C-alpha cells in the first residue's frame, strides 16, 4: 500500500511538472506573439529606408536636428513616412552635391523640381527604388530632399531654429513608402 501511494504521489508530481512546462511554454509563446505584434505595428520602415541616407549626411558633417514619422499602420495613416532636418556648415551648392551623392550611393536618382521660393531647391526620386517592405502595397520608395539657403524664413525643429545663410544650409529629408495593404 505504501508503494502504491508513492507511485501515485510520483505520478501527481510528474503531472504537475508537465502542467508547469506547458503553462510556461504557452506564456512564452504569448509574450513572443505580443512582442512581434507590437514591433509590426510600431516599426517605421520609412525611417529604416532613410537610415543609409542619414548616415552619409551625418558622416559628411550634417548635424541632425530632429526627425519624426509614422509607421503607417494606424486608422488615420496608411503610408509609412519619415522626415528629418539637418544643418550643414556649407553653401547650398555644397549641400546639393552632398544629397546627390547620398542618393546615388543608395540607388536613387534625384530630379530637381521647381519651388515657388528662390532660397529652396527640391529634389525627388519616386521611381528609383522598389519598396520590398512586408505588409505594404507594391510600389516605389519616394525620397525628397529640400535644401534651404540664404533668405529662408526661420525653420524650426523641436522649437529650435535652424541656421541657413550663405555658409549654412538646412536640409530636409523625407521618405515615403507605399500604403499598407
Overview of the structural elements:
The chain is an alpha+beta fold and 181 residues long. It has helices spanning 2-42, 45-59, 92-104, and strands spanning 63-70, 81-88, 111-113, 120-125, 142-148, 155-157, 160-162, 169-176. The protein has 2 domains: 1-42; 45-176, no CATH class. It is built from 3 helices and 8 strands. Strand 3 (111-113) and strand 4 (120-125) form a beta hairpin.
List the helices and strands and how they pair.
Elements: H1 2-42, H2 45-59, E1 63-70, E2 81-88, H3 92-104, E3 111-113, E4 120-125, E5 142-148, E6 155-157, E7 160-162, E8 169-176
Antiparallel strand pairs: 1-2, 2-8, 3-4, 4-5, 5-8, 6-7
Helix pairs in contact: 2-3
Amino acid at each position: 500500500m505504501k508503494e502504491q501511494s508513492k507511485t501515485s504521489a510520483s505520478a501527481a508530481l510528474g503531472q504537475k511538472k508537465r502542467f508547469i512546462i506547458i503553462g510556461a511554454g504557452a506564456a512564452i509563446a504569448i509574450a513572443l506573439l505580443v512582442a512581434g505584434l507590437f514591433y509590426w505595428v510600431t516599426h517605421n520602415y520609412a525611417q529604416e529606408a532613410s537610415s543609409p541616407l542619414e548616415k552619409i549626411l551625418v558622416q559628411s558633417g550634417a548635424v541632425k536636428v530632429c526627425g519624426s514619422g509614422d509607421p503607417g499602420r494606424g486608422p488615420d495613416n496608411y503610408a509609412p513616412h519619415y522626415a528629418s532636418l539637418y544643418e550643414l556648415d556649407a553653401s547650398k551648392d555644397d549641400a546639393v552635391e552632398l544629397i546627390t551623392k547620398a542618393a546615388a550611393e543608395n540607388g536613387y536618382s534625384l530630379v530637381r523640381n521647381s519651388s515657388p521660393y528662390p532660397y529652396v531647391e527640391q529634389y525627388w526620386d519616386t521611381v528609383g527604388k522598389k519598396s520590398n517592405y512586408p505588409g505594404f502595397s507594391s510600389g516605389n520608395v519616394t525620397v525628397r530632399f529640400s535644401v534651404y539657403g540664404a533668405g529662408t524664413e526661420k525653420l524650426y525643429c523641436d522649437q529650435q531654429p535652424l541656421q541657413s545663410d550663405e555658409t549654412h544650409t538646412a536640409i530636409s529629408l523625407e521618405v515615403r513608402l507605399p500604403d499598407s495593404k
